[in-house]
Task: inverse folding
């Protein structure tokens, strides 16, 4: 059934059901994210958070339901420059890969055959993305020599190099120390507020998610439950994600 | 350089140098994508093609090319049936191709010098027709890689991200596999089917030890491959050795020397 398209809409899922080997992990999920929003998706391990994110960007195709990116059916979507994506695997890169930071960031900018003749444009955009991610001084360093936190900023710069309107991140701070994590979230919040970038992030960092995101999406029981206020989020669900119940002795990081 | 007074040495050097550049260039992508065994499977398939060409009486290079290209597509097909066991496809194709080659050789009932030259490479066996084919196809492969450099880098580094950058990953992968098949078929003439994958793997392995950028990795791999081919061909002429084996032994020696030197420098630091 057709639905009215809101021009501010970045992604919309309509009655999406997804199954692995016949076992559904998401059932009749309906979700819409508008331009400029910061949505954090939280949930326990195995709740299909990453699956949900991959469905949004078209890496996984549900057999049932409809997925739209910027109003276009995901099966026909070709405006890849409008989205940036950081996968969970980014933290597990081959550290002996002989590539500089600038080379990795440039790989995010792709414009088909046209790209053969726009070397100077690509260089300018890479410089801008490095600047935006605050890692200009790392441009000539080998990717494998960087710390986890620096590496994540490189992947952020790679996702930003094509000047996307929306950023999709799958647990980008896994394995990163607390201060680098905090800095990474500050950067995301800055891009969201100052540049109007839509941010959709899968995370286990509940503290960071609650302090920066405008909306929290709890992924559980094969569905997604959106909350606009921290007080709305079920404490049992938070306890399930954290592995402990928040009490007087626990503070958000 | 008296060795260049011989026409066959001139041809061997031209074919060898082009083969070195091609094998090292594609090898960087192959090694980084952890597909080192693909070269082995395709070279075994090309031996079946050579045997088929000899059996049916057509130019063995065409047989090698057809068999390597067919094996490349077969590997992709089998890999889709066993997505979690990628090496199954390589083992099936490698052993089946070897079996086919052995059966065809036994049908012809001849394990002759020409076949031996395709197994281990030969200096005198490079004909003017071989040089023409290697030069033409070599230029085509290098232009293809230059055009697809950005796509291949992005896919090699992070296939998922490459897909979301809008790169047609499946099409580029199939085209690259066919280029690899073509390179293997070309390289067989100089280094032989049993050693061609070594020329694709060892020079890039040296470059991974010392390269400070992706572009530098190509420069180093090509340099090592050229050094191994030039010294290997020269040594095989002077000492009457099999060129394929000599080239690969020199490349291996360079790899070991670089690893030892790097280890010593790291300890000294």
Result:
């Amino acid at each position: 059934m057709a639905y009215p398209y809101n021009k501010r809409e970045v992604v919309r899922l309509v009655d999406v059901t997804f199954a692995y080997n016949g076992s559904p992990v998401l059932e009749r999920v309906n979700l819409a994210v508008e331009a400029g929003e910061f949505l954090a998706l939280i949930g326990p391990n195995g709740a299909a958070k990453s699956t949900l994110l991959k469905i949004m960007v078209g890496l996984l195709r549900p057999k049932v339901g409809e997925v739209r990116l910027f109003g276009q059916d995901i099966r026909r979507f070709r405006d890849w420059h409008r989205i940036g994506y950081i996968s969970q695997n980014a933290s597990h890169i081959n550290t002996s890969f002989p590539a500089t930071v600038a080379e990795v960031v440039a790989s995010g900018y792709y414009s088909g055959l046209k790209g053969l003749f726009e070397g100077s444009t690509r260089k300018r955009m890479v410089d801008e993305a490095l600047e935006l991610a605050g890692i200009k001084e790392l441009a000539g360093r080998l990717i494998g020599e960087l710390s986890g936190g620096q590496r994540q900023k490189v992947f952020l710069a790679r996702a930003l190099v094509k000047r996307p309107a929306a950023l999709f991140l799958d647990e980008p701070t896994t394995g990163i120390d607390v201060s680098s994590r905090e800095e990474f979230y500050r950067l995301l919040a800055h891009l969201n507020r100052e540049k109007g970038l839509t941010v959709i992030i899968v995370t286990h960092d509940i503290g960071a998610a609650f302090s920066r995101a405008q909306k929290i999406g709890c992924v559980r029981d094969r569905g997604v439950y959106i909350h606009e206020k921290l007080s709305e989020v079920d404490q049992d669900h938070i306890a399930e994600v954290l592995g402990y119940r928040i009490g007087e002795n626990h503070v958000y990081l | 350089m008296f060795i260049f007074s011989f026409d066959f040495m001139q041809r061997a050097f031209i074919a060898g140098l082009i083969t070195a550049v091609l094998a090292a260039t594609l090898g960087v992508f192959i090694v980084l994508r952890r597909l080192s065994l693909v070269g082995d499977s395709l070279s075994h398939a090309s031996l079946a093609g050579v045997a088929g060409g000899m059996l049916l009486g057509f130019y063995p290079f065409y047989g090698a090319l057809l068999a390597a290209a067919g094996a490349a597509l077969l590997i992709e097909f089998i890999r889709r049936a066993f997505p979690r066991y990628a090496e199954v496809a390589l083992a099936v194709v490698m052993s089946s191709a070897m079996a086919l080659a052995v059966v065809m050789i036994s049908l012809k009932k001849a394990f002759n010098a020409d076949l031996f030259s395709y197994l281990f490479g030969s200096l005198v066996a490079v004909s003017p027709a071989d040089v023409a084919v290697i030069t033409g196809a070599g230029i085509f492969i290098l232009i293809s890689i230059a055009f697809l450099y950005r796509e291949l880098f992005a896919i090699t580094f992070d296939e998922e991200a490459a897909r979301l950058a809008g790169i047609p990953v499946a099409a580029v992968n199939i085209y690259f596999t066919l280029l690899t098949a073509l390179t293997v078929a070309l390289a067989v003439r100089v280094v032989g089917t049993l050693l061609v994958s070594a020329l694709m793997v060892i020079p890039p392995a040296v470059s991974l030890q010392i390269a400070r950028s992706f572009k530098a990795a190509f420069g180093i791999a090509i340099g090592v491959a050229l050094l191994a081919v030039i010294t290997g061909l020269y040594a095989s002429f002077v000492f009457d050795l099999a060129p394929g084996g000599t080239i690969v032994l020199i490349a291996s020696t360079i790899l070991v020397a670089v690893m030892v030197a790097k280890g010593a420098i790291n300890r000294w630091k």
About this structure: The CA atoms of residues 148 and 172 of chain B lie 8 Å apart. The interface with chain A takes residues 32, 147, 150-151, 153-154, 157-158, 160-167, 207-208, 211-217 of chain B (CB under 8 Å). The mean pLDDT of chain B is 88. The domain at 7-193 of chain B is CATH 1.10.3470.10 (ABC transporter involved in vitamin B12 uptake, BtuC).
